[in-house]
Fold each of these.
Amino acid sequence: MAAAAAAGAERLRDGSCHFQRSRLIWMIAITFGMIVLGWVTLWPSTIPYSYLGIFGSFLNYLVENHHKWVCYGFWVSWLIHVVEAFYGVKLCQSKGITDPAVQFHWFIQTLLFGYASFGLLVSYKPSAKKQY
């Protein structure tokens, strides 16, 4: 049991299990934005524009005048999130994050929150390996 704990502590120190959660404010903002963008793209007739004030007027304007571009924006944003998520797994491997469960966490977080997660992974600097 003590050997397993020591091995786990060593894995934390060597960076193979590094994971950092995105900031909550970015998680909330991106989730809200993607939900609204999806709603405007996929079900624009169900949006209660009159109850949303100036934001509803803006959404209605987008639906009436630029719906094609809103749709492109929605699908391109998901495409970017997917590409970032897969590249994030490759980046994990190149930065020494080898634990498959941790790589999966990075993949899911980047898929859902995009650059708010991917930027953390890009900026992660693994500690230098000790030479004996």
Amino acid sequence: MGRTGLLVSDFAISFMWVLSGVLIKKFIHNVLGLAHEPSGDILYFALSIINMFFFAFLAKITNGGTYNPLTVFSDAITGDFSRFLFTVAARIPAQVIGSVAGVKLIMEIFPGIGLGPRLTVDIHRGALTEGLLTFAIVTISLGLYRKIPGSFFMKTWISSVSKLTLHILGSDLTGGCMNPASVMGWAYARGDHITKEHILVYWLAPIEATLLAVWTFRLLFPPKEDKKAKAE
């Protein structure tokens, strides 16, 4: 798939990701009437993991299309400059636009719905929370890619459970998002997408955590080619 196809995939998948999260909650709360019930929580966890498997499959068949800027950013910073530029200048904006479009559609379909994740603690604690959550999930993703290179099911299972666990840990503080594009969609709907809180907590902190995770992982587990070069 060429670069144009990848941008279309990023847009469409980001659009679908925002919609899917809301539809799962609507199904459990409104259709089944299981809001605030233990059975509803269990069903939410199960459907969320199934949903992440579906999007992992979409990423596979589109050769890398994804809904999270941090996923493509962590990959881009280890590549050449043209790849990095394409990611920052084209792929991440496509994901943001897809998320904004998804939220706009949600607002049209469900006018009374909430307005997404919000920061419930001070800005410094919020930035630390999103940073730590991002550092954890990026490190886990890098480890899975290195240690289990060929197992789609096992990688997706561990990654999905990890993301869901980290999301729950941070949900009461920042929303536990670890996805700047998705948060941007909701923030744009609220009109606070250019505030200091949004930029620092949901963009700057996760990006810095991603850089730190990638550099730390490469320092502790250098690529095989680096080891060969040192040996020579």
